Amino acid sequence: MTRTGTSLARLGLTEPWAEATLGELGWWVGDKPADGAAEIMWALARSPDPDLALRTVERLVQSASDRSALDAALRSDAGLRGRLLALLGSSTALGDHLVTHPDRWHRLASDAPDGGDPCAALLSAVGADPAAPPAGAPGGSAATLSGAEAISALRTAYRDELLVLAAADLGAVGEPELPVLPVEDVAAQLADLAAAALQAALAVAVGEAGDAASGEQAGRLAIIAMGKTGGHELNYVSDVDVVFVAEPADQATTRLASRVIRIAGEACFQVDANLRPEGRQGALVRTLDGHVSYYKRWAKTWEFQALLKARPVAGDPELGAAYAEAVAPMVWNAVARDDFVADVQAMRRRVEEHIRPDHAEREIKLGPGGLRDVEFAVQLLQLVHGRTDESLRSPSTLDALAALADGGYVGREDGANLAASYRFLRLLEHRLQLQRMRRTHLLPASDDTDAQRWLARAARLRPDGRRDVVGVLVAEWMRNVRRVRRLHEKLFYRPLLSAVSRMSADTARLSEAAAAARLGALGWASPEGALGHLRALTSGVSRAASIQQTLLPVLLDELARSPDPDRGLLAYRRVSEALATTPWYLRLLRDEGQVAQRLMRLLGTSALIPDLLVRAPEVLRLLAAPTAGQADELARDPAEVAASLRATVARQKDPDGAAATARSMRRHELLRVACADLLGVLPAVEVCAALSSVWAAVLQATLDSVERAISEGPAPARIAVIGMGRLGGMELGYSSDADVMFVCEAVDGASDHDAVRYATTVAETVRRRLASPSPDPALVVDADLRPEGRSGALVRTLGSYREYYSRWSHAWEAQALLRASAVAGDADLGRRFLEMVDPIRYPADGIDAATVTEIRRIKARVDAERLPRGADRTTHTKLGLGGLADVEWTVQLLQLQHAGDIPELRTTSTLEGLQEASEAGLLTAEDAAELTAGWTMATRARNAVMLVKGKPGDQLPRSGRELAAVAVAMGYPPDGDPGVFLDDYRRTGRRTRAVVERVFYGW
After folding, report:
1. Which of 454, 485, 516 is where one domain is finished?
2. Which UniProt keywords apply (predicted)?
């Protein structure tokens, strides 16, 4: 590389034609700047893109009529150099505009007269009188230009004003001595310019309407700015959100509003009127009374949130002021609405849905830690506290944030930091949009270092000695995003603690009334009760209280997203008090972020989990994030769990201690499975299998301990426990009893009488020890499916069972045996029992028509007589339409009819039975899928009811927070409508029932 090339490269000029161009301009001679041009070269070097700036300034010089004057001004005017060269290196679109209108460079000179009122300039450009009443008002001015001529004039005038503003904004980039224009001032001037363009567009529309109507103008029309325009914080390129108010709202004013949208859209920017009542489907123009009536009767909370920034900007000023005065009281009372939280959450969800997954990490506006997070948080705090504090009622995000800090609703340091991050993000947004005057909120990709370097230079970033300018940009971006990501902790929750505890002086101080208002807005039904819990958790000067003050803002944020924050906070207090002496508890929550996040979700959803957690706190450790390549600790192998349980209980010599140990380990596993279930770690089939495996292990361990305690010598009998019902099918739920039958066999010459007496004592002891009072879900061993039911012997020998089933068994008993499996006790005896009953439950020739009729009759009677009074048959998970009983009886009927000929049907599992029936051609694939979906939905819903309510129940809640919690437990979004879950449940039930009616009932 030549010496000259090296010098130019140091100035940022990398194109091969740069030296020749500089020579033609007279700014470079040999290997150094020409006389008097050194300052131009340094200003060019400071431009975000020196090559682009040089190329455009060459075009400008060639098109300028006063080339020598431009050259002289650049040599002598530091302000012009800084503004012009920074602008040309930042915006190709405005550079093209300047080349097209080369005389406009004079407006960037330091001695250029102040541009004055942009509204007057734009009105004059279209031939309207700036001194006359505004267009849209009675006797308002109308433009003399119309059609394409008016649009062209307005476009040029708008770009002229934009050119001057952008140059002032960028001036300090090209010349460090020029003042830095704060980003909020730029945004405010852009909003004023947009308002001026709307007024000019309205003047053109009125003029065109007058021509079309022979001089007769439309009625009064006011344009209300919404969004960033209304908030005085507009971007360089953005849709301008508006609402039209008219008197009268007739076809003439509607056409007038439509013309404004068209004219402004073709000349300046897109006008978006979709924030009007009823959105796109609503009338474009309404009267003031029409607007007020809509907002009083139909508007949702998010619409009042949008009205926070409503501001009259064009048209009839009296009508605009009347609109603002009418809607303001409704805005500041929106927090009292019953659906406030749900609507705000829905608004957040809609925002998040707009993010493309591959853009989430680069989204300045909508991404995590982006602009919308700041704006949303500030607006929510305004709605909560602005009802009683008028100082917060500012449409500007930064002004409102400052007022929140001044009023003590936000800590001063937090408010200042958040405002700084907001300004930085807005600056990046402005620079990106200026480049080509296109709407964008996306940072350059990580592999596009040229674009990142340009953005960093345009944002006035400089290398810091350790990193180049690209590294500084990335570091600043991440720092500010992380700071904004702590938005809710900083703005919503930490000030709540100041109302109930001793916190540092720089923390925002809320009164208890203000804290209660904020909690109510964030979803707590009993804010006073929540404050009491916070006071109890943070009171005192202990280390635990200090850790709680650090933890609670994060925990409250998670709880606010749960279906029942009140219950969750109460449960957290109970757990914290119960584990107050557990040294690792708070440390685990503090150091393992996922543990705290998961715990709050569990506590805010389930009443069962906190009851178990205070007695099995060690399960908390399993909530930690799995290490790379490792399975989640919540998902353990059931066989491994069962073996560990039996081994632990076997070490207990005392039968009471053995039973207590079995219950304790069962509690631990019940809690683990419940957590895994609610967190989506285990699917429904594995949940049922895990619960069944634990139950079987408890039975085995307790049986072993009782036999050891009772038998002083050799036992006179071997005993097997046969699982029936859902235990036999490995399909237990959280609230299921253990249906069993006890079978024995005499050994070592003992009589059957002695064997039965011994086995009965063992069985009764097992049942009694497991059923002893406990705060855990009951351990009920139900033997009512034995021969002759409750009136029959609790234990029979294998021969007695054989004789009974061969002589006296009924169809329902054969059906019950379909799910029989050996779950505990002597494995060989259990196997021989099953071999003995196989011919009974799998009859070789199937069952006759009379037996089929009897089974159908029994099922119909069960449905009619056992459904509880007042139950909703469409949402009863067990006996309802398409519920568990419908699917299970259908599978069992097919097994009784065909398992004798089709060995694959010989399974105790409902889902396996459905699959085998489909493969055997007894069910179509579609019918099998519908029955599978119905069984799975009902099983999950039944388990969810137990998890949410903490007590058994087969009926889904009809409404309220319990229904919302059940929906969340089923995997539906916490901020969604639980009615969607109900609709899905009923739809699945209807489809399942239709198959049952055809296959089981033969209808």
Report:
1. 485
2. ATP-binding, Magnesium, Multifunctional enzyme, Nucleotide-binding, Nucleotidyltransferase, Transferase
